[in-house]
Amino acid sequence: MDQRDGLSIHLGELVRAARLRAGRSQKELAAAAGISASYLNLLEHGRRALPATLLPRLAEALGVPLAELLPTPDPVLATRLLEALGSAPADGEGLEPERVRSLAQAQPELARAVVRLADAYARARESAETLAARLSERLDVGDLDAAPLPSDAVSNLLQRHQNHFPELEAAAERLWREAGLAAGDLERGLVRHLEARHGVRVGVVPPAALGRHVRRFVPASKDLLLSESLPAASRVFQLGHQLGLLEEAAALDRMTEAGLETPPARALGRVALANYFAAAVLMPYEPFLAAAEAERYDLELLENRFAANVEQVAHRLTTLRRPGREGVPFHFVRVDLAGNVSKRFSATGLHLGRIGSCARWAVHNAFLTPGRILVQVEEMPDGAAYLSIARTVTREARGFRVPRVVQAITLGCRLRDAPALVYAEGLDLERGRVPIGPTCRLCDRLDCEQRATPSLRHPLRIDVNARGVSFYAPP
Questions:
Q1: Residue 325: helix, strand or coil by DSSP?
Q2: What is the DSSP annotation of 17-79?
Q3: Pairing of strands 385-394, 406-414
Q4: Are 292 and 310 in contact (CB under 8 A)?
């Protein structure tokens, strides 16, 4: 039976710290206190509850006051440590509040060091984000890694590879053969393979059992827990994701270590590449490409045929870059209600900024017609034209009390490729183009009624006696 608790663990740590300060070995202290060295080792590591009657003997043997072996409560420090660990760039697993408070009491110097590091991290990140925002307003950020945040580093990695990873495609195809997967029974096949190959048991549990998570893998017990709030397509995707982490670990390490510099970026890169593998399992390359071409890239038909959701289908379409078997080149963007870009990739040459986009873009209008596909023909200031498809996507419902997360995605292609898409039917591709730009700060369209900031490409001229279509329109 595991007899550990937070207080026992940190009482033991206090004893160990005092022993090390005194320069005594476990064997020496154990002999002086009348206990065995193995028992002292268990006490110091919190594997046995430390009896109250033993503390005075340990203090006497060490020649220190008893108070030195007792934690001193500091509620302010404990609160600051909880805040610091809650905002740290890690998943925070196992950081129960009571254990954190015990740590703050037992190791105040360590707790203060962690708080200082968290404060320094927060300041550094804020500075980086501020610099990124300033640089993105002054330069073409497609040519400059202005903000080395993990999400940007991963986006750049995907862009460098044109969002196509042949090794993961081959691994997904191999999994289909080795696991004997069938299109109509994919979930059960993946569950069976996880248990047979890796000894992993899959359980679907109520959302409350997972807290804020929808998937949790416990390596020690080899349990993979999925929230029952996940629809079938998302459960299959998460099963594929876990298989990617287990079976393609070496490939994921190699790809992320070669292209990403920081541990957070590598961790996020592993997630992105495991997601890529999951999509390749859910929608195998050759069958998916054949269906996309036969159905003229109809998102909803592909969604139904492959039992996927529309965002998964749209994102998968951007990965069809196998030499000699390419699909239509697309760009893909996902935004939230505030216009923040959380996913971006471009194989069309369209500039996709890290911060902000054009208000005239169909992806923003999609929020006005939830669940419906909007089609738009767009023209950039340089004359480049695109066909875009935009639609809202809603994250899985996790119960009545949990707010729904609504985002919008857009999938676009160059106008010359538009005839391959069902969405081009009945459209006049030469007329009715909507003029758009990269961002307001980088756009030359001075007469835009939705301009929110002045253009960096033109000096700002204000006529107090005249008002244009926007505040920043030229007089």
A1: strand
A2: HHHHHHT--HHHHHHHHTS-HHHHHHHHTTSS---TTHHHHHHHHHTS-GGGGSPPP-HHHHH
A3: antiparallel
A4: no
Q: What is the mean pLDDT of residues 217-244?
A: 93
Angle of helix 150-160 versus helix 263-282 axis, rounded to 10 = 50
Query: What pLDDT sits at residue 1?
Result: 33
Q: Which of 111-115, 234-238, 261-265, 399-403 is predicted least confidently?
A: 399-403
Per-residue confidence (pLDDT) for residue 93, from 0 to 100: 45
Query: Please, are residues 44 and 35 in contact by the beta-carbon 8 Å criterion?
Result: no
**Quick check: 7 pLDDT over 60?**
no
DSSP string, 91-150: --TT--HHHHHHHHHH-HHHHHHHHHHHHHHHHHHHHHHHHHHHHHHHS-GGG------H
Which of helix, strand or coil describes residue 412?
A: strand
- Hey, CA dihedral for 376, 380, 386, 392, is it positive or negative? negative
Contact 309, 390 (CB under 8 A): no
**Is the Cβ–Cβ distance between 84 and 118 less than 8 Å?**
yes
- b vs e for 166-204, b when ≥16 Cβ sit within 10 Å of the residue's Cβ? eebbebbeebbeebebeeeebbebbbebbeeeeebebee
Q: Are 135 and 143 in contact (CB under 8 A)?
A: no
Indicate the length of the chain as a whole number.
Answer: 475
pLDDT, one tens digit per residue, over 34-76 is 999 999 988 888 788 888 788 888 988 998 888 777 765 555 5
How far is it, in rounded angstroms, from Cα 470 to Cα 243?
Answer: 53
Q: How many helices (H) and strands (E) does the chain have?
A: 17, 11
Query: Could you give the residue ranges of the DSSP H alpha helices within 343-390?
Result: 362-365
376-413 pLDDT, tens digit per residue, is: 999 888 788 999 999 999 876 666 777 788 999 999 99
What is the phi/psi pair of residue 46, to 5°?
70, 20
Percent of the chain with pLDDT over 70: 81
pLDDT band at 372 (very low <50, low <70, confident <90, very high): very high
**Nearby residues of 36 by Cβ (< 8 Å), 6 or more positions away:** 30
CA distance 315 to 311: 6
CB 349 within 8 A of CB 383: no
The Cα–Cα gap between 125 and 9 comes to 34
**26/9 Cα distance (integer angstroms):** 17
